[in-house]
Structures
1.
Amino acid sequence: MMTRRILLFSAAVLPFRLMADEQRVSVRGRLRQGDGVKPGLTTKDGKTIDLAGDSATLGVLRDTRLKDADFEAMGHFTGPAEFQIDPIYKKALFAWRDGKRLMVTYWCEICSIRAWTPGPCQCCQRPMKLDLRDPALEDTDPTN
Ligand SMILES: [Zn+2]
């Protein structure tokens, strides 16, 4: 009796490519700041993710008023522990307070000017106030 064994090999193994770097996702954790370290997040399960972004975004990440904040950023992964935050105009930066996801903004109450990165007010040159803001209020007049 003849036994014929036929082994089947899949000749065409499709390259498996993760599309994660093309998808907009968010990361959340405690905002890490410090001398000589890249801005980053420490997630709930203890992972550290380095954050990169444009200069206005980096300005926010380095704002000491946000040190250790419960922070969330939108963007995409460029490595297992490296995250590229969306450009500042996409409004990709949030801080969580009391269970609410708030946009990170800056506000000059003298000039009623809002900005997305810390620094002097473009009008009166005074330092702008950090103003965490409910996204639902974004298009309303901030009179309260
Ligand atoms: Zn001003």
Note: The radius of gyration is 22 Å.
2.
Amino acid sequence: MRILLAGAGGQLGRSLRGVLAGHDVVAKTHGELDIADLEAVRAAVAAARPDLVLNAAAYNRVDDAEKDGDDAYRGNALGPRNLALAAAASGAAILHVSTDYVFDGRGSRPYHEFDRPAPRSVYGASKLAGEIAVRELAPRHYVVRTAWVFHEEGANFPRTILSLRDRPEVRVVNDQIGSPTYAPHLAEAIARLLETEAFGTYHFAGAGAASWYEVTCALYERLGVRTPIVPVTTEEFPRPAERPRYSVLATIQEPRIVLPPWQEGLAAFCARLTEPI
Ligand SMILES: NC(=O)c1ccc[n+]([C@@H]2O[C@H](COP(=O)([O-])OP(=O)(O)OC[C@H]3O[C@@H](n4cnc5c(N)ncnc54)[C@H](OP(=O)(O)O)[C@@H]3O)[C@@H](O)[C@H]2O)c1
């Protein structure tokens, strides 16, 4: 398959480049293709003539989005709109990636693909707008929702919390529960999904569930970090954007594609850390 990959420099983009090596991939970083620029997107699709447009690009600065709403919508709604328009016009399918933050997090069982989105943040609302644009404009679409993505390179929670290990203690939220997802595991699941041609919406995230506190405990234990970890509540650690309290993702749409448990992802992350954080 010939694939145009947008957002190729991010955590998922880099991981996809690895697992899609058997395909003919035209990879574009943010510097090479701004998906918010419709003419640039049309030109890239016309030049690549892809069978599939794969969108790994996103504006992911969840807290900044509360004040930079227009930028968040440009990256997360206008960008996918442009890619969907160009894909549909050229006869290509599209795979777009979205987030658990489209849910309000007030549930107590894992969210599946048919649960009703109700975002509580600008970031979540902008990502939901992107999903809707893709569904409306490109009939041959996959929308893959994922969560809590991490990779040994990039901006993510495990790297941030590791960078704080020299403090006397670290305080970590213990009442937000989600699905930590290792980017290469997600990339492998996406590669398998592409073989199915079963278009629709999918939830792919690391198997199991954890709080940020539990992720920190597992990470520090694995790396032999002895810094005391203090569990705190969301109220004790306020952030500009509201986070879902519970946003574990489950799939009933494609139960044959299950990601490894998040602990396996964390083990691979630790094994592949090369540069000091
Ligand atoms: N990270 C998470 O925890 C998480 C959780 C749930 C869902 N997701 C979703 O998973 C997907 C992959 O995320 P990720 O973790 O790989 O994110 P990432 O590491 O932040 O990568 C996103 C990439 O998109 C690029 N980008 C931003 N705006 C762009 C634009 N207008 N045009 C082209 N490229 C642009 C970024 O470039 P710059 O760095 O130059 O801005 C970055 O290289 C996204 O759809 C994201 O919303 C992520």
Note: Residues 6-7, 9-13, 30, 33-36, 56-60, 75, 79, 97, 99, 127, 146-149, 154 surround NAP (CB under 6 Å).
3.
Amino acid sequence: MKKHSVFISVFFLIFSLNVQAGSIEKKYPTVDVDLKAVKVSKHVYFVQGKAGIATDNAGFISNAGFVVTNEGVVVFDALGTPSLAVKLYKEIRKVTQQPIRYVIMSHYHADHLYGLQVFKELGAKVIAPQGARVYLASDVSDNLLATRRVDLAPWVNESTHLVPADQYISTEYKFSLGGIQFKITPLGNAHSEGDLTLLVEPDNVLFSGDLIFEGRIPFVGQANIFNWLKALETMRNVNVSAVLPGHGPLAKDPNALINMTYNYLSLLKNTMQTAVENWTPFAEAYAQIDWGDYMFLPAFDAANRMNAYNVFLFMERTNQ
Ligand SMILES: [Zn+2]
């Protein structure tokens, strides 16, 4: 190719990327929340949602992050509305003009998911845990989207849709981009039908998704509490320099963070297991538990009783 035609191709590539980016920004309603990327390590950036329930803070209640390499950007989780994803994209553009190559999804839950269509439109490849297929095939995903179109209007609206992954992961998966090594570890059905973590190897930074909550009560939902606890035990043994959780601030002392989630889940598991074994009715068992360490944390009133009840039902199912 001649020099001037290379120049013209590059010009049109940059021009079309800019048009694409501009149209992405115009396509979605703007959202006025404080979303700023913080640099965590040489290549890793993090945005932190505000602690609260799903509809607080215009849906910005979960975290996300991105990794900048000189061959493109890897995004981790997509936030709870397309408008939030556009804001995240703008933060990325403050740091680099590299294309968005991958979005790695920790799991498919609404608060991390509805922004995905923005990155898909920007040409990213989506990687998710195998269990995301279960979520996508369930009525829960459609029903929740319908509910959020009301609760999170105008940011979640008729054009918001569920985006399937391009690749589903069920065994450890490593890849490299721009000389940076990434390790994806799927953990099976733990917090959700399928969870994974992402380790950015040269920075020794771990994106944990919702296996770890910091500064609020975890959301248990349909979790397999045994697998979740096992996954946390495994993570205790990885000596990372920072953990970026799915909710709450990043941890420079990862074990303290892991322990908070681990202790809370252990309390639920032990008390509900005992209740089921002794045929104690749920309400009675619940009333006897000392929630002292957790009752002043955000989301306690909204989530705790339902968490305990879900674990109670899980124990009844697994006891049979
Ligand atoms: Zn979440």
Note: Residues 62, 109, 111-112, 210, 246-247 surround zinc ion (CB under 6 Å).
4.
Amino acid sequence: MKRVAVLMGGWSSEREVSLVSGRDCAAALVSEGYDARTIDVTRDLDALLAALTPRPDVAFNALHGTGGEDGTIQGVLEFLRIPYTHSGVLASAVAMHKPSAKAVFAAAGLPLAEGRVVRRQELAAGDVMPRPFVVKPVAEGSSVGVRIVRPDDNSWGEEARHWAYEENLVERYVPGRELTVAVMGDRALGALEIRPNNTTLYDYTAKYAPGGSTHLMPAPIHRRAYEEALAISLNAHRALGCRGVSRADLRYDDTAGEPGRLYLLEVNTQPGMTPTSLVPDIARYAGIGFTELVRWMVENAACDS
Ligand SMILES: Nc1ncnc2c1ncn2[C@@H]1O[C@H](COP(=O)(O)OP(=O)(O)O)[C@@H](O)[C@H]1O
Ligand SMILES: [Mg+2]
């Protein structure tokens, strides 16, 4: 019986989502006969080391965001030589820093929205590209800090002068629809369309609150676009050197008809893992239940070297 430490919580803005993911994954593992325990990860490293003693066979990484998704906790687990789920140090760090990830994607020939890094001061000085555009902090997640600036937006100028983030990625706003693709090892499982229910700003609430959005699985798009979305996502996972499960976010511009054009936004190396999260939804459609998914992740846990 494998002993699994489920790492959850953390200190990022996604702490609460992570606590839910962690508890649900631990429960699924216990139901499969694993000796799974949860560890609420804080910045107290001594406490973490104590909780990892005696050493578990596998660490299930249910953390999101800063500390848990950016190579930090992965480095600790490499140091301890505890095999862990999801991506390793480098893939995690690169995926989390949006401009770095975009450089890797561009080198792999993947389709991206035009954009560049803009500092706070430059943001405050005036529009850096024609509207509509999107401003996002380079290293947040779950749409935290994402601001869509539309042509008729009169409050942006003032907001930009008090913008909380120093380094930002500003991108052309891609109209159309929102897709997300789950990748499991060497296979893209499927593409799901997320349709926000009543908001034009696709924010944190719309994404995670019950009833905030509708999940359409499989995404009701042209077959060629569907296949292309899977290929882009698998290539993105490989280009970053991801391990285990990842989830790619894409925009699908079908405003000029179908099949439309796809744009890769990002790869999430630590996607949400509650039974109603996107990856489990997609996996279920591919015939892989939540428990089977979590079991696969544990059995495929590894260290970088
Ligand atoms: N260039 C873009 N065009 C249109 N919408 C975008 C663009 N970039 C981001 N968005 C919207 O903001 C959301 C969050 O952006 P994303 O790049 O996935 O960062 P994160 O999820 O890490 O906050 C996307 O799911 C999408 O709805
Ligand atoms: Mg995203």
Note: The mean pLDDT is 94.
